Amino acid sequence: xxxxxxxxxxxxxxxxxxxxxxxxLGPAACGIAEVLPGATVARVRGEPxxxxxxxxxxxxxxxxxxxxxxxxxxxxxxxxxxxxxxAGVRFTGSGSETLALCRRKHRVAxxxxxAGVPVPQAGGFPCIVKPADQDGSAGLxxxxxxxxxAALRRACARAAGPLVIEEFLPGRExxxxxxxxxxxxxxxxxxxxxxxxxxxxxxxxxxxxxSADYANSPLSYAVExxxxxxxxxxxxxxxxxxxxxxxxxxxxxxxxxxxxHPRVLDVNPNPEIGPEVGIHRAVLEAGWTWSRxxxxxxxxx
Length: 301
What we know:
Layout lengths: L2 E6 L17 H8 L6 E5 L3 H11 L3 E5 L10 H11 L2 E2 L4 H7 L2 H10 L12 E5 L13 E2 L2 H9 L5 E5 L5 E8 L5 E7 L10 H5 L4 H4 L3 E2 L6 H18 L3 E9 L5 E7 L9 H8 L4 H11 L1
Parallel strand pairs: 1-2, 1-3, 3-4
Antiparallel strand pairs: 5-6, 5-7, 8-9, 8-11, 9-10, 11-12
Helix pairs in contact: 3-4
């Protein structure tokens, strides 16, 4: 099988507070190529003509799509998938409509609620203020959780774009990785263990490995869950997958409310897939080999 591993180059500059290396898909591409002898790895800026020329040159049977920030712009993530769809080329991961939907948190929340998937409610305190059109925990820090009107006004005043304001759920938080062709047949659950007063996954907790937030939010797969709670977490996560039309693999962020019931915080149909983190770690924790996962994605494309 002729495979083209396509990934975008990191942007030269990023918005204030973000890291350029957050968008470096090179290690992920190399990790996939290691288990696909003969596959071609191509790093692109993301221009349509550039991608179409690569397709013409290599004539791949399937593209492993690792394009997250075409032309250095994360909001263009769905456009590469749309271009591959237009060209009639099979590719891994979710389609353009799912990728576009999940970049708008307020819209995906409405879709989830309409499908009967429990999500946080609007209004009340404490609440959390987060960007509606960002990913990777961008814009989230300790001041994102607001206890009163004054804190809410301050959080809104510093935002540069549209916001989502919703109740802050007090319970345990889980990272649920799902994979399958069109159905979420396989699952791996990790729990974020908040320590020393940290209450949410901030941008620093996710990307700044030297920060206190990173140290205080380890992810554990030695998760202790009774059977009913595990079933409920899996059910809401699978419901989210189906509601957005995910394919291949996805990550669902789930948190428990005050009554201990799981609600979906976020749906990421193009999650981190680099070595030893994200989906890579999740599938290994579930007993899969990396080669099995990668080859399954190609078969499901």
